[in-house]
Amino acid sequence: MHSILKGLVASAAVAVASTAVPAHADEIIKLGLSVPLSGAGASWGKGSEYMCQQAAEEVKAAGGVKVDGKTYNFQCIAYDNKYNAAEGAKVGRRLLNEDGVKFIGGSLGTAPARALQSMSERKGVLHFTVAWGKSMKGPKYPLTFTEMNTPIEISRPLVQYIKQANPQIKTVVLVNPNDATGEETEAVADQAWKATGLSVVSTDRYERGTTEFQPLAAKIAALKPDAVDLCSSPPADAGLILKELAALGWKGVQVVEVGTGAGGLLATGGDAAENTYLGAAITFDGPTATERQRALDAGVHKVSGDSLNAIQVGFYDSVMALRAAMEKAQSIDPKVVAQTLPTITFTSFYGGKSAFGGQSEYGSPQQMLEPVIVTQIKNGKLVELSRLMPEELKKKTGQ
User: Fold this and answer.
1) Considering only CA atoms, which of 117, 142, 145, 118 is closest in space to residue 129?
2) Long-range contacts of range 38-42, CB-CB < 8 Å, 24 or more positions apart?
3) Which domains does the chain have, with CATH numbers?
4) 219-247 pLDDT tens trace
5) Which are the contacts of 144, defined by CB distance < 8 A and separation ≥ 6?
6) Mean pLDDT across the chain, nearest whole number?
7) CA-to-CA distance for 125 and 103, rounded, in angstroms?
């Protein structure tokens, strides 16, 4: 296992295409990945690449994908989209035109994912993404599926839980990166907080790559909000903001709505990250975690420097969903597989069954249904507070 992880570290570091399954060319299904492998989102991207590779290895070990008398295996090919639209377009052209990819195993970042989607839909390529933009789904985009909970799935149950646990809070400030991801997350978070009765006193954005957050923190502290929701801010950025707020003496309820792990927050925020609520993180310390889950968490930590999170789990679950859909459809045609995905259930990384839904929200069932896990940093460690199951998932799987 150590030699495998060592090789994966080298692969992620150079940010080149990675081969997870050596097999004869006509037995390979290429899974393209458009992810940030450098910059503030690099930990997310490197862990996502690793999880795709691990899922591909598991599928191979289980006998591959059986379709029409043939056996196929998956190959994960990852390139660095640098979390921006221009690089996302370059990655898209490379994956679709040069590598001939027919399936996107995952894209990360709304702006680069949109750039890729403009090509993938036109070329008939099935596209899994963890991008949160509601505008990317619906009948106009029949080949695009979301492989993790978005703020639409996370915000309302998370915010309601936090309000119930902290009934004294009345006001909140929202902070997001100034890009497509931040814009769409801000709108969803604004609605969720207002629906609980809180007043959103300010919505602020900052440029990705910012390292000096004192001016932003000073503006927030002057408003004296009861809560601050850093929404879609990456862990390293969120930690720096919380550190500056603590230095200014602000004390209130801290939330990173789509917060993905404690490691990055603690690395930059230190003690200031204590008691922060997160909505997209997972902890593996409890008795419910399996040995395989712990091993994958350790592997992600080695390649990315942070714990395994819901973003990266999506890159694992998309592989399992594709296998189930291909075998049910007995086809590897992207359009046929896309039509089959809403009809399947599959075993998720989380241990139970998952399915696709979201018809009422998006106009078509393109949302992977997963539990919303509410966590909080306590005594420097991530603690799971609650696991909230979507009603649609309960109905579809009987869980």
Assistant:
1) 145
2) 38/80, 38/82, 39/82, 39/83, 39/208, 39/209, 40/83, 40/208, 40/209, 40/234, 40/236, 40/237, 41/83, 41/108, 41/109, 41/234, 42/304
3) 2-149+290-370 (3.40.50.2300), 151-278 (3.40.50.2300)
4) 999 999 999 999 999 888 999 999 999 99
5) 117, 120, 121, 127, 129, 136, 137, 366
6) 91
7) 6
